[in-house]
Structure formats: structure tokens, C-alpha cells
Design brief:
The chain has 3 domains: 122 residues, no CATH class; 100 residues, YbbR-like domain (RNA Polymerase Alpha Subunit, Chain A, domain 2, Beta Complex); 103 residues, RNA Polymerase Alpha Subunit, Chain A, domain 2, CATH 2.170.120. 20% of the residues lie in helices and 43% in strands. It is built from 7 helices and 22 strands. The longest helix is centred in the first third of the chain and has 28 residues.
Length: 343
């Protein structure tokens, strides 16, 4: 009796194995053509730091010949996930932007392990840009808008930042700097004369970005991304006393032929003139970068009715930087306008 049960079990196992083998053989012989859409993700080899753009190719249609089981395995792997394919940096003398043979890439990819017979890939090629990514250490400097009056601006904890960028961009950042920008929008609730700290996002100087192309602009990064900047907001306006300003004429050549104009010696200069305006403009006056001048502008009408001694009064006008005004009242100056004898 036990021998009969053992014989039945052996027979069942043999029948089962044979059935499986027959099914596998039938499945392998049942080969068909399949067409479906997949995504490809282009990746760099582990030993290469590359920028690949675009690095994802969507809606790629492929046609392949496979058995039912092979098709099911392929569909399971790549219906929701992209097929990853390695691409290397082209030789130095090759263009960085070039077409890729998608048929060859897909054929030689991981689908080989499934035993698929690739028939067609559409589109057959894709133009990509492949470039080496390099790291450059640049100094970090503060920058602020012209309308801000800041003092003691420092980046206390950061001297340099690492910029990762396309190799073609490396020449653009030579002798450049990473910028820590401050703007008027960041001055909310900042009190004048009190040291403040703001965390700002680092970027490259606008002069560098203006020279970069779209690929370069979209493929650089800065580490660290931000920095703390300390500063003191100064008063926007300040006053300054100009000890002496010479007075001159601004008059047409016609009037000079008609009148002999003289300024009395004691009125050749304005003295102790107080002006007020933006600190940066006042600084130009102090340093001598802007020379303040005073002038009178006689006109034909103003010289028609001089007093008995041929004197006419004018209030001198001043040449001042933008936004700077006089605080001291400017007193009139009397000039002598003697008619010339006409031939």
C-alpha cells in the first residue's frame, strides 16, 4: 500500500514537470510583435560628472518581437519606470551637441537581458547636449542697489563659494565673484544706524550671466546656496557745508557784444553754502568728483532796464548733483551791465 502511494506521487510530479516544460516551450514558440511607448532616462557613467540635456526622452515608440512572457516582463519593468541608458562624454574634438542613435542605445541597453528582438524605434534619434560639469571656487562679495546707503557691509562666515558649472562656462567666471545681493525689499523694519544681518541667496554677477547662454544659465549651482550679510543702513540724506563757490556767467555771445558785464570783487564767490542730499552724491562733492559751480544767466530782457548805475540783481543758480539742494538761502548778486558803444 505505501508503495502504491509513492508511485502515484512520483507519477504526479513527473506529469507536472512535463506540463510546465510543455507550457514553457509553447510560450517560447508563441512569438509576436509588440508596439508600446516607453521613457528613456539618459544617465552618466559613475566615474563621469556630466550634464545631459535633455536627460529624459518621453513618448518613445518601440516595436519588438518577443514571447508572451518576455513581453510581460518588459511591460512590468518599463510601463511606469524609465529605461536607464548610460551615455559618455564625447571626445574632446567632437561637438557637445550631437544626435544620439536611439535604436542602437535601446538595442544595447538592459532589454538585452530579456532577449527581446528590437525591430523599430521612433523617433530614431534625439539631439542632446552633453558636457562636463566642473567646480570652480570663487570669492563671495556683497552687492547692493544704488538707492541703498549701507556701511560696514560684510560676509563674516564665508570667503569663497563653490560653483558647479558647465566646462564651457568656466572661462566666463575667470576673475569673477559670487554675489550676495541686498535689495531695498530686504530693508523692511531695518533701522538706520543699527547693525543688521540678512540671509541672502547667492548668485553670479549679472555681467557673467549676460554672457552665458540658456544652457549655461540653467545648469550651474552654487554651494552654499546662501550667506549671512551684516550691514548698517545709513541715513539716505546728509548735509555738507561748501566753504566757497565761484560765480560765473552763462550768457549768449550776442549779449556780450552788447554789454560789458562785471561782477564786483566782493561778490565773486558764495561762501558757507549748506547743501543736503543723498549720501553718495554728497560724497562726490566732498571728494571733488563733482565740482559745484554757481552762475548767473543774464537775458536780453533782464538787461533792458538797469538802474542809474547800470546795476542789475540776479540770484545765482548752482550746478549740483542729482537730488542735492541748497539749505542756505542764496542772496542776490548785483552785476554791472554797461552798454557797449555800437559801431
Amino acid at each position: 500500500m505505501p508503495g502504491q502511494w509513492l508511485q502515484k506521487i512520483e507519477t504526479f510530479i513527473i506529469v507536472t514537470v512535463i506540463s510546465v516544460l510543455v507550457w514553457l516551450y509553447a510560450d517560447a514558440q508563441n512569438v509576436d510583435d509588440y508596439t508600446q511607448q516607453i521613457r528613456i532616462k539618459l544617465v552618466a557613467p559613475a566615474n563621469q560628472n556630466l550634464i545631459i540635456e535633455p536627460n529624459v526622452i518621453s513618448n518613445l515608440t518601440i516595436t519588438y518581437r518577443a514571447s508572451n512572457s518576455q513581453q510581460r516582463q518588459f511591460d512590468y519593468r518599463y510601463r511606469e519606470h524609465p529605461l536607464q541608458i548610460e551615455v559618455s562624454l564625447p571626445p574632446a574634438d567632437s561637438p557637445r551637441t550631437r544626435p544620439l542613435d536611439l535604436f542602437a542605445l535601446v538595442r544595447d541597453s538592459a532589454i538585452k537581458d530579456l532577449g527581446l528582438n528590437l525591430q523599430l524605434v521612433s523617433p530614431p534619434e534625439q539631439t542632446v547636449h552633453i558636457e562636463q560639469l566642473v567646480d570652480v571656487a570663487l570669492p563671495v562679495v556683497p552687492y547692493w542697489d544704488d538707492d541703498l546707503e549701507l556701511a560696514n557691509v560684510q560676509i563674516p562666515e564665508l570667503e569663497k563659494a563653490t560653483v558647479s558649472l558647465p566646462q564651457s562656462m568656466a572661462g566666463l567666471v575667470k576673475n569673477a565673484a559670487v554675489i550676495a545681493p541686498l535689495s531695498a525689499a530686504q530693508m523692511t523694519a531695518v533701522k538706520e544706524g543699527i547693525p543688521e544681518t540678512r540671509t541672502v541667496q547667492l548668485t553670479l554677477a549679472q555681467s557673467v550671466l549676460d554672457k552665458a547662454d540658456d544652457f549655461q544659465k540653467s545648469n550651474f549651482s552654487i554651494n552654499p546656496k546662501s550667506a549671512n550679510v551684516t550691514f548698517t543702513l545709513q541715513s539716505k540724506n546728509e548735509s555738507y557745508t561748501i566753504r566757497r563757490i565761484s560765480i560765473d556767467y552763462r550768457v549768449s555771445p550776442v549779449l556780450l557784444r552788447q554789454f560789458d558785464l562785471q561782477i564786483p570783487t566782493e561778490a565773486l564767490f558764495l561762501t558757507d553754502v549748506v547743501v543736503n542730499g543723498p549720501s553718495k552724491e554728497i560724497e562726490k562733492i566732498i571728494k571733488g568728483d563733482f565740482k559745484v559751480g554757481a552762475y548767473i544767466r543774464p537775458t536780453s530782457e533782464s538787461l533792458q532796464n538797469p538802474s542809474n548805475d547800470n546795476q542789475v540783481s540776479f540770484i545765482p543758480q548752482l550746478d549740483l548733483p542729482p537730488g542735492v539742494v541748497t539749505v542756505t538761502p542764496i542772496q542776490p548778486v548785483k552785476i554791472t551791465a554797461t552798454p557797449r558803444m555800437q559801431p
